[in-house]
Design goal:
alpha+beta; Fumarylacetoacetate hydrolase, domain 2; five-stranded mixed beta sheet; 16 strands
Length: 219
């Protein structure tokens, strides 16, 4: 076993657990009910993309949406982690985008099918560099923002989350064992919108970290 650093979590090939509808205003903008418990779905490790590589619009979608989210990187694994000690399992954070083929997701919802084609395609999880835990002392109260071609589209605070980070870690780990290097996407605030080929996306967690991605069409 070679020594590895959680700061390169995206290279580990660990799972990505995503939370849907965790901001009331976003649930409303998509005409969804505010959930009584977290809505979960998964992205495979092949969804990761880092700055310098483009976000690809899947060939089968004509309505790709951005969703800016706070990512939580797990440092210490566990099963059925109590809320009271959940933050001890966090190594740090990452700024993440949950890229969503909205037209495909609407179709899946209408047919009662899983969201895999809408949410789990290659490059559906753009991520920033790793942000050590110490740099965000209060992850439940940080600003998340996203611009498309310099126009502000999403701007909200994580204090608006319905389910807190400790609640999510505890809830998820009751169902799925969390392992070192796993990433949790904690949901998006309102303001999601479509992006097209050649668009430039810029996003940030306050002024702690920023990232920029170009959008390209899948060949
Ligand atoms: Mg999302």
């Amino acid at each position: 076993m070679t020594a590895r650093s959680v700061s390169r979590f995206w290279e580990w090939g660990r799972k990505i657990v995503c939370v849907g509808r965790n901001y009331a205003e976003h649930a409303k903008e998509l005409q969804n009910a505010v959930p009584a418990e977290p809505v979960l779905f998964l992205k495979p490790p092949s969804a990761y993309v880092k700055e310098g590589s483009p976000i690809l619009v899947p060939a089968y979608s004509s309505n790709l949406h951005h969703e800016v989210e706070l990512g939580v990187v797990i440092g210490k694994g566990g099963t059925a982690i109590p809320r009271s000690s959940a933050m001890d399992h966090v190594a740090g954070y990452a700024l993440c985008l949950d890229m969503t083929a909205r037209d495909v997701q609407e179709e899946c919802k209408a047919k009662g099918l899983p969201w895999t084609r809408a949410k789990a395609f290659d490059t559906s999880c753009p991520v920033s560099e790793f942000v050590p835990k110490e740099r965000i002392p209060d992850p439940g109260n940080v600003r998340l923002w996203l611009k498309v071609n310099d126009q502000l589209r999403q701007d909200c605070c994580t204090s608006q989350m319905i389910f807190s980070i400790p609640h999510l870690i505890s809830y998820i780990s009751e169902i799925i064992t969390l392992e070192e290097g796993d990433l949790i996407l904690t949901g998006t605030p309102k303001g999601v919108s479509a992006v097209r080929e050649h668009d430039e996306l810029q996003a940030g967690i306050g002024d702690v970290v920023t990232m920029t991605f170009k959008v390209a069409r899948q060949q």
